[in-house]
Amino acid sequence: MQRLDKYLSDAGCASRRELKALLRAGAVRVNGLVVTDGAAKLDEQTAAVTLNGQPVERRRRVVLLMNKPAGYVTSTEDPRDLTVMDLLPEQWKKQAVAPVGRLDKQTEGLLLLTNDGVLAHRLISPRYRVEKSYYARHEGEVGPDDVQAFREGLVLGDGTRCLPARLEPLGPGESRITVTEGKYHQVRRMMASRGAPVVYLRREREGMLTLNGLGPGQVRELNAEETAAIDRLCGTAVPRDSGSDDPLVQN
Ligand code: URA
Question: pLDDT at position 135, please?
Answer without folding.
Answer: 98
